[in-house]
Fold:
Amino acid sequence: MIVKSEAIVLRTMKYRESSRIATLFTKEIGKISVLAKGARDGKSRLGGALQPMNHVGVLFYRKESRDLQLLTQCDLARSFPGLSSDLDKMAAAMAAVELTDAVSPPEEPNGRLFDLLSSTLDAVSRATKQPGNALYYFELHLLGIIGFRPDMRVCAVCRKPVDPRAGGSGVHMSPNGILCPVCSGKGLGLETLSPAVLAVLQRLQETGDPASATRMVLNTRVRGEIAGVLRRFLLGHVEGLRTLRSETVFSSIL
Ligand SMILES: [Zn+2]
Structure:
């Protein structure tokens, strides 16, 4: 069967003399691996667009009994020109792509995740202030899509609303979400959330798109805390997720 789909290239590897194997997150059937014969031959029409983080239109032969599908066409559907010129942007975009790869089982379509990843890459590419904020948006909304949405307004235990001003030593993060000062006092929480961090997490959860997140101006301390809280929460819920390759690469550069 020939399948036509939009896809985001998650990763690629060289194969034999001149070919490439790519992992694609397709809108139609979810994550698949494809063989692009001759893609590393300079004259190939397949190779040009088949690069990680690209949003492409693809055609491939799908055989259900096969793990590797044969790619026959790949064209750039939408480009993210800002990503290659800025290390912060590249790091945020690569982390979003790696997380999508980590949470996606093969051949399970997920249109919401596809749209979230695509809008995040676009927001990171266009960001003029803080591209990394789009990654925090992505992580928080990704948790919702995979069924672990931490409600940033309501205590995960007693379900009472939590005011950001009750932060400081009061509000804590637990594996189920935030805890009000009373429930935190029972020793259920893992880490303190400062009022500033809680307020930003609430805004990120309620903001409609990752582009608005990139227009928020957060200081270095708040960004560091948010990155840590979200990453620890993700690690607790995504099986097999340890450190991201992109972070290892970029921590040695930056
Ligand atoms: Zn409570």
Q: What stands out?
A: Residues 72 and 250 are 33 Å apart (CA to CA).
